[in-house]
Specification:
It is a single chain. With about 375 residues, the protein is α+β, with helices and mostly antiparallel strands. It folds into 2 domains: about 220 residues, 3-Layer(aba) Sandwich (Rossmann fold); about 130 residues, Nucleic acid-binding proteins (OB fold (Dihydrolipoamide Acetyltransferase, E2P), Beta Barrel). It contains 8 helices and 21 strands. A 6-stranded mixed beta sheet has the order 6-7-8-3-9-10, sandwiched between helices. It is globular.
Length: about 375
């Protein structure tokens, strides 16, 4: 990848806090105009990595480059970045316009030009006409928008978002996810989001770096992470994944023959084989929506297995079934959309389960 295709570059970045190794050899790139997410559980190092980009944290070794320039000697206030904090950091004693224009205090532009820039920033985030309001009188979603406008008015090359939606309720959070995607496309700059919410990262990102214990476990597009996680640990963290024991029978350069518990002998492509098996040994993984319950009259599928329904959880648009496939030692989860005329099955019902070998991932 050439320099013009890279906005952020990490070169073997390490960070120590005393004896604690917070970042362990982070290497990778973030592209210009990309919506990029750092995803992982609490304490994995994602916020520390974000703060090294901002200049709020020094690194112990390695290098962080922004737009081709090494940031080693560049203080936070001189970097082409701005950050939206989890708490928003809105000044309650200032008006909305004063909050948004706070970073323009030393800007050489005239007052009229600054007022115009503030008005444009507010319109960009959907707060046209809100400039005179008191900041303390805003809702959570409105404070979030003010924080975004304040960060974007300085026209940074990179906007850093440290779990900015975590304080919002579910409905407002989903609304703001769509707004952030729209805003990022509109301004065209690089957004880097820190989140522990897998669904949020999948919905919003062009690419995602999944982090565990100070390391990047996998960096890929959302669909790749979901469909082809490179280890069982990543698979288990991203969404819901079912696992069944498996045994490798034969293999070639292009395919592997396995015996999977409950499924029998299966031929899968080499692209479906990943590393990262646990102490249990090889397992096959599959997502709940890749299996289907075959109702009477359902068309044939690639493969079928018999199962018993052990639990039913109704969610309105979806029903989740925990089913015990014949020959397995624990239940797996299947999700079925509740279309008109499709009954919700009872616990104890015997059912045919349809599946395709192409939906399986082997971890070994």
């Amino acid at each position: 990848m050439s320099a013009k295709d890279t906005m952020i570059e990490f070169r073997d970045v390490h960070k120590y806090y005393g004896d604690y190794h917070a970042l362990r050899g982070i290497t990778g790139t973030i592209r210009p105009g990309e919506f990029f997410s750092l995803l992982g559980p609490s304490g994995c190092g994602k916020t520390t990595l974000l703060r090294t980009i901002a200049g709020f944290e020094d690194i112990s070794s390695g290098a962080v480059l922004i737009d081709g320039r090494d940031m080693a000697a560049v203080p936070a206030n001189k970097r082409p970045t701005n950050m939206v904090f989890q708490s928003y950091a809105i000044f309650p004693h200032l008006s909305v316009a004063q909050n948004v224009g706070f970073g323009l205090r030393k800007d050489p532009r005239s007052s009229a030009e600054k007022e115009k820039a503030v008005a444009e920033a507010l319109e960009m985030v959907g707060l046209k006409g809100y400039g005179g309001r008191a900041a303390h009188a805003l809702s959570g979603g409105q404070r979030q928008r003010v924080a975004l406008a304040r960060a974007l008015i300085l026209k940074p090359k990179v906007l850093l978002l440290d779990e900015p939606l975590s304080a919002l309720d579910k409905k407002m959070r989903e609304q703001m996810q769509v707004e952030l995607i729209r805003l990022q496309r509109q301004v065209g700059i690089t957004f880097i989001l820190v989140t522990h919410d897998q669904e949020e990262a999948l919905v919003m990102s062009d690419r995602i770096a999944v982090m565990f214990e100070g390391e990047i476990a996998q960096l890929a597009e959302p669909e790749t992470l979901y469909r082809r996680p490179n280890s069982r640990k990543v698979a288990d963290f991203i969404g819901t994944m079912n696992f069944l024991k498996a045994k490798v029978l034969e293999e070639t350069d292009t395919a592997v023959e396995i015996d999977a518990q409950g499924f029998g002998r299966i031929h899968i492509e080499r692209s479906q084989v990943m590393g990262g098996a646990t102490a249990e040994g090889p397992t096959v993984g599959f997502r709940p929506e890749t299996m289907t319950i075959l109702y009477e009259g359902s068309p044939a599928t690639d493969r079928e297995s018999m199962a018993t329904i052990e639990e039913v959880v109704y969610f309105g648009d979806m029903t989740y079934y925990d089913v015990r496939i014949d020959g397995t030692d624990h239940p797996v989860r299947i999700s079925m959309r509740n279309v008109f005329g499709r009954p919700v099955l009872d616990i104890g019902t015997k059912a045919r389960i349809g599946w395709s070998p192409g939906a399986l991932v082997l971890f070994r």
